Amino acid sequence: MAERHARLLLFLSILTPQCSAARAFTPLRFSVEPTDTLAVRGLPAVLNCSVAGGEAAVARVEWRKDGTFLNLAADERRRLLPGGSLFIGAVVHSKHNRPDEGVYQCTATLDSLGSISSRTARLTVAGVPRFSGQPEAVSVHAGGSEVLNCEVSAELGPFAHWERAGVAVEMDGRLVQLPNGALVISEASSADAGPYRCVIEGLGPLKASEDVQLHVLPGAGLEERLEVLLGPVSLAKPVGETVLLPCVVKGSPVPTIGWMRNAKAVDQSDERISVIGGGVLRIANLTSEDSGTYSCRADNSNESVETQAKLTVLVPPQFLKKPSNIYAHEAMDIIFECNVTGFPAPTVKWVKNGDAVIPSDYFKIVNQHDLQVLGLVKSDEGFYQCMAENEAGNIQAGAQLIILEQDVALPTSAVPSLTSATTDHVASGPGERPGPAPTAPRDLVASLVSTRFIKLTWRLPAELHGENLTYSVFHSLHGSSRERVENTTAPGEMQVTIQNLMPDTKYTFRVVASNRNGLGESSPPLTVATQPEVQVPGPAPNLQAASITSTSVTLTWERPLTGNGEIHTYKLYYSEKGQDTEQDLDVAGLSYTMTGLKKFTEYSFRMVAYNKHGPGVSTEDLLIQTLSDVPSAAPQNVSLEVQNSKSIMIRWQPPPPGTLNGELTAYKIRYRKSGRRGEAAEVMTTQLSQLIDGLDSGAEYSFRLSASTTNGTGPATEWLTAETFESDLDESQVPGMPSSLHVRPLVNSIVVSWTPPENQYIVVRGYSIAYGIGSPHAQTIKVDYKQRYYSIDNLDPSSHYVITLKAFNNMGEGIPVYESAITRSQSDPIDPEIDLFELFHHPPHTPAPDPSPMLPPVGVQASVVSHDAIKVSWADNSLPKNQKITDSRYYTIRWKTNIPANTKYKVANATTLTHTVANLKANTLYEFSVMVTKGRRTSTWSMTAHGTTFETLPTSAPKDVTVVSKEGRPRTININWQPPSEANGKITGYIIYYSTDVNAEVHDWVVEPVMGNRLTHQIQELTLDTTYYFKIQARNSKGMGPLSDTVQFRTPKAEPLDKMSSDQVGFQGKAGGRSTLPDHGFGSSLDKPGITGSHENHILVIVIIVSVGVFTIVAVVVGAVLCTRRSNSQQKKCSPLRKRAACKSTNGSHKSKSTSKDLKPPDLWIHHERVEMKPIDKSPEPNLVMTETPIPRNTQEPSGHEVEESVSTLAGRRGVRPKIMMPFDPQPPQPVISAHPIHSLDHLHHHHHHHYHPPPRGYLHHQISLRAPATPSTPVPYVDRAPSSESVRTQPPAPQPPSAAELQQSEAVIKEEDPPSYKPPSAHVHPSHPMKSFAVPTVSVSAHNPPSSALPCTPLLAQPVPGVKTASIGTLGRARAPVAVTVPSAPDSAETSKMLPTKETAYETDELSEEMAHLEGLMKDLNAITTA
Fold first, then answer.
1. Is residue 957 pLDDT above 90, yes or no?
2. Which residues in 1063-1217 belong to E strands, given as ranges?
3. What angle do CA 148, 151, 154 make, to 5 degrees?
4. How many other C-beta atoms are found inside a 10 Å radius of the C-beta of residue 921?
5. In this structure, are strands 235-238 and 304-321 parallel, antiparallel, or unpaired?
6. Which pLDDT score, from 0 to 100, does residue 302 have?
7. Distances from the Cα of 1349 to the Cαs of 349, 474, 1127, 1143, in angstroms?
8. Cα dist. 1405→111, 573, 833, 1267 in Å?
9. Nearest of 1376, 1323, 1310 to residue 1354 by alpha carbon
């Protein structure tokens, strides 16, 4: 009846998915699982297994042996018991036939649902009883220990026992049988003598070894050296078991046995730990804390021996988190979580329905142990089990996956088991859809495609049918039916990045929108291929390391599984644990033995394979420790202190770091009376001091000290001597007053000497000297009891000091003795080379120091150790040839960076002939010097040694990262940066990362490499109206540095609409225009995108054109009036020598000194972007106010006066052409002013005074812009196009000249560009006023008509000249030497045909002032119109 009910439940559970509710999970588990079993040949064996749960009655149980199902129906010896256990009738086992021994596993299956598997169990069969060797007869002294061996296999050990004279030996604390069958006899007596044999019983007929005799000898006998009969061996045992560590040592006298764990004595107060059988350590109920290295030490009065072994406690796997049952829909991603612990670390594998899960693109192991299933399909349903195993055992835990139909809602309890990509993918039930779902999203495109990710964007559906739309992106391999789903992170977001794709692979994408009514229609599928990736090798699998010796390690690995092409080489990276410096070397093959390592030091290794494409993926770091060894150095700073007539205290410090070479077990102190070399006593201790007592009075003893590890004893120190007191001194009271105190004042010091207290039977440990001005309590100094003088330094001259001296011991300080002294004045110094022996008349108590100076150290060498450490070594000529330091001298090392400006030294002291200076900067040159100090004597500094630290990884990121748009190319950007402040070596390149997702993993960002030390890079073909994120890291020969902070940049929304109109706007619309000049100058507005094509700019262009037209008309009228008046008042004559130049000038003419004050030529606008200024020697005729010449300068002129200057101004950025205000001294030398046109795309549209042929396109023009003073009261005229040829004239003094502050606002930045073969002619100008301006001519003449004679002009010649040097123009508000301004030249053919009359034009001052005032009024009106 029960079986029928169970079948009905199973049938209903199978039909449940067709209903709208989710079916329940099926409870299926094991209540009993098989365990490891030791079977006996010929006897039956049982492996237990039982299934529990509601479906247990209908579950089918099967057994596997070594992974293969057993056919129990055809097996006569093995059958399945009703509960599910496996019964083996008679175990078969022989040398060549072992059918029953192996690994067994129980499996339970529910049809149509799946199956589960139990943990595995090993069946071991005890073999045929046999002895591999026979025990031997032995003899032992009474009270000693002995071992009788029983050589049987491990599985026969539990069946072996001992008999003496046919009677079983009873085990007690004195007799112990070890797991391998050996019998340990300790504290032997005559009762233990007799015949012994080893017996194997319980495996059929009894099997006994040969009888052997144990002889017990008398206890009193000759001394016998210690011999280890049986020592501990390294082994591993599971938690909870009992372990026996034997230590049987034979010798006479009988030794005592002591145990240590990890160099510390074993705590025998723990009831789990005991020492039995004379030296066998027994530990019951093992815990993980019992792991360690155990040392057995046997010691008697003659010698000691030591042996050790390592005990490893195994911890079986245990679940920290078991997998949970999961509901899901198709196309979802899920994760079964499984977290285990144990020692050694368990290996985890996953099983689905009893079969192992093989990792693939859709089944992945994540987070070390978790199973991730991507893109679920219906066939993924079933039972999933997590199986963990290590040397101590194995366990399993399972969960069920049920895939529901799309119209069945996921229970909320199942949602946390989903991945982050599908946690919100919960379908609504049919009853929750009151309205229509949205239509398909539109325009699905891939906006960013990389090797391993694709970013998708789309538009809203045509019909939303609701608010707060969410989107699900379904994607799959092209041609595959297994889809995965990725949801947007927020409602309304219409973009998603699909990560973890494969390079050079096609994927199919579709998007589905959903609202409160459910999922809508799907978009048309989009097929996109990821970009190909350079196939570099994958990580080298199975990297293993083994310590061979204390200084060598052997590494092995296998060929990488992934990669394109042949492996060229392997690079092995290694570093010492705790060190940042990583070293590398190239190796070939699949193994390598590294030598020269430090002893007992942990190293980290990793391997990188190289092929033709470069380095591959690195392996994980592998840690390995070299083997231990004996110490390589002796303890240091050993000191001897005589306590009394019977004892001496010895103190020391451990050996230098890195020389212990293992775990310290003890310090060995050997001492003897001086002169007795053969009789040395030995003391062992683990402390840093030891009191040696029981010594003879008044005897001299020698001591030496060495350190020991488990491998043995290291080198010993030199013999040190100390003499015990003749009789014990009294230290029950404080010392008496010193018997005398003498002082000798100097200028800045006082020399103090004294004699000890009169009572010589009281211990004196030292002396305390106190001193101060007027009071002895300001400073206190303590000196050794042997010292008899001291120099108090750094005192003030001509000052009264009070000095006290007290002797002290361990009881306290004695009675002080007082003395006072007045230091000498500065005007009364004494010889500093004072002889203390002559100062004080107490020869026994005032020994004089050696006045000879110390010799400085020699042979100073600086050996680079790492990127931040340099080892300094030297020799001391004042030491013996063996360079042994036997006194209290010390050395001072100073160092600094080798930079002349750096004068700050750092210092350190050392008591040896080497010192390692740490915490240095990488890739930096340092200089070192050393001096020696002994007592109060010091040497001079030694010769310097230099060393440059190694390079290391950059420790800072590139700084000042900026991103700017490429003008006219909105899809292109320029990224600029500055080098890192801590490069730690030569920068060999940069890596630029950019992405549209700032939160993406670094390996998902697009990478742009930059070779060399360039600080700018251009990135093209970006997507419009998209926000990009950029960051940069620098690299040097050692690797990559940190990433910079992320910089954000958004590309423009669209291409420029009208480039031509922006060009015509020119200065007014710089942000929207595009210049053909190679340099936009400082502060150029071309870096500011965004105004091209806007409605406001078109209105601005119209206003400017109208304003320029009005201004042009006014300028023509004023120019005509001026030219008419000028034609009526020509100069009466021209100088014959300068007629040609004067008549061609557009700026003025020669006048005598008497008429120079009447010459007021009009202003000239110099082209604001192309100006060349050249100084010239003073005019040979200083009386002339202005001189012009079309003749080029000869080649004999000094080239130092020739300059080309390129200036970028703020006025250029604002689109306003400023008036150039150039200050001159009251009597400056004559400048040469020449101008040539800009070579721009619209130069044919300029208005010319003459026919002008532009220079060749290859000629590099020079741009200059001047920052004009912004004065509200002075209107600044401008035109829309600069003429290519302009008149030059001087301006009369203005009624209100600009102030000095305004002049200082005018700045010029000069840039040098040497033209290859072009030099315009120049005109010499001697200004008549310290402040002149050059303004735009008011009349423009057609380029096709020659100018009239009423308006003089100069056809300048274009002549080739040598290269021109650059000069710098500072603030124009200061007076300076004249500069040369380049003026555009006319072609040679027009020079003779357009000669002007020799008659010069004269301007009246009143008339010109009136006209200028009128022009100024017109300009104010024009400014008002423009502003409105």
1. yes
2. 1172-1175
3. 125
4. 14
5. parallel
6. 75
7. 103, 84, 7, 9
8. 119, 88, 90, 30
9. 1323
